[in-house]
Every structure is written in structure tokens, then in C-alpha cells.
Amino acid sequence: MVSFDVGAYGYARTLGAIADAAREADFSVNFMGVRAQTEAAVRHAFQHLMLQSVDGIVLVESQMLDTPSLRLPPSMPVVLADGDTGHEYPNVDFDQAHGSHSVVSHLLDLGHRTVWHLAGRSTPSPRVGAPSPGAGP
Q: What is the mean pLDDT of each run of 10 residues along the chain (137 residues)?
């Protein structure tokens, strides 16, 4: 398994679920944390894990990479978790629309008449290495 910010709640839950599913199927999980959100850093992690003779790799949160394309070693089975479905690799993600609908319906069923949504930034975070909005040349 290759991932970036393992301290974030969502990442921790994803990693835990993957580890649980692997254990139920009699597999073990090797984890490789990557600090730089670049394709080069991910490729390096893959090469390191391939030396350990792993059967396949799960890459968590691939849309955070510095490049829209993702070129990984073709000899290794790869699955993206919480990743960009624009890649050629199989992808597993959460149905956030269904989850949101379920939460709001539950609150309304409890008798609440107003449900508020507090959001973060309205634009995506800039990719690593990309200039900040309003930054000069």
C-alpha cells in the first residue's frame, strides 16, 4: 500500500479497511508512506515494494500527484483507492453523494428542519509544484 498523509482521518480509515480486507483474505499488507506527492516519488515507492515481491499495490489518493498522467510499472497489478478514475487502473472510491443523502435524510427523519453543510475551500488545493493563485511568473 502506498499513501501520502496517513495522519488524516480519511486516510487512516481507508488504510485500516484495506488492512482488514487483506487479513480476511489471508494476505498481509506492507505500507510505504510517500512524502512528496509526485509521480517520481510514487514510482520509487513501487520499485521498493516490488523488490519485496509483493503481489499487487494499492495507491491511495492518486489525484494528488503532480501530473495528470500516471505511468507505473506495467508488471505490477495496481488498484487506486480514493483516486482519479481518469487513469487506466481499477479504482475503488466512496459513494459520497449517497452518503450525503443518507446523512441528510437521517437528520430530517429525526425531525430536524434545517441541515447545514460547512465546507472547506471552494476550489481544489493546488497540485504540488503548481504556482499559487495570484502568484507572479
A: 74 84 91 84 88 88 69 83 70 77 91 83 53 46
Separation between Cα atoms, residue 125 and residue 28, nearest integer Å = 33
29 Cβ contact list (under 8 Å, min separation 6): 1, 18, 19, 22, 23
Task: Say how far apart CA 75 and CA 55 lie, in whole Å.
Answer: 10
Q: List the grid coordinates of 50.
A: 516490488
Q: Kindly report the backbone phi and psi dihedral angles of residue 64, in degrees, each rounded to the nearest multiple of 5, phi listed first.
A: -85, 0
User: Quick one: which H or E segment has residue 23?
Assistant: helix 9-24
- 51/41 Cα distance (integer angstroms): 16
